[in-house]
């Protein structure tokens, strides 16, 4: 349980690039707060104008259980569907270890650039900006 049970599990962070939502995850990410965290993150994404990137700062994150991992995967799925970049910043060794053990490290930390979803039309120009990203890592 978090040291301050009434502190919000998601806090907005100031600064950053335009069109970027920066949020800090604070305390434990577990069954008790997972739904609230998902709700707050999705609300922040929908509330911003032309959001292209989501950056989740994990420095204040405590224990992450399987429900918390599921929340991170759901957030990643939503950002992928929307063409929004997804980034986990300041991960501690416990979170990194969990992601490695569960086989989700590469999936959740691979560079995911902001891009329109596959079903969107009229956005071929964004691929031309950096064609090398399609071949990297292969």
Q: Categorize the overall geometry.
A: globular
| Number of helical segments with 4 or more residues | 5
How much of the sequence lies in strands comes to 15-25%
pLDDT averaged over residues: 82
Task: Profile the largest sheet.
Answer: 4 strands, mixed
And the CATH topology? Transcription Regulator spoIIAA
* Alpha-carbon distance between the two ends: 42 Å
For the record, the CATH architecture stands as 2-Layer Sandwich
Radius of gyration: 16 Å
Q: Could you list the spans in which at least 5 consecutive residues all have pLDDT below 50?
A: 116-138
Q: What is the count of structural domains?
A: 1
Element-level helix/strand string: EEEHEEHEHHH
Protein name: STAS domain-containing protein
InterPro entries: MlaB-like_STAS (IPR058548), STAS_dom (IPR002645), STAS_dom_sf (IPR036513)
Region (Disordered): 113-138
Biased composition (Low complexity): 113-126
């Amino acid at each position: 349980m978090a040291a301050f049970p009434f502190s919000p599990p998601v806090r907005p962070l100031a600064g950053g690039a335009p069109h970027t939502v920066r949020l800090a995850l604070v305390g434990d990410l577990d069954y008790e707060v997972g739904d609230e965290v998902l709700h707050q993150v999705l609300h922040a994404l929908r509330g911003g104008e032309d959001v292209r990137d989501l950056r989740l700062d994990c420095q204040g994150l405590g224990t992450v259980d399987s429900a918390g991992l599921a929340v991170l995967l759901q957030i990643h799925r939503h950002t992928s569907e929307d063409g929004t970049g997804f980034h986990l910043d300041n991960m501690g060794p416990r979170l990194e270890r969990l992601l490695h053990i569960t086989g989700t490290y590469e999936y959740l930390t691979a560079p995911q650039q902001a891009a329109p979803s596959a079903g969107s039309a009229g956005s071929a120009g964004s691929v031309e900006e950096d064609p090398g990203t399609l071949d990297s890592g292969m």
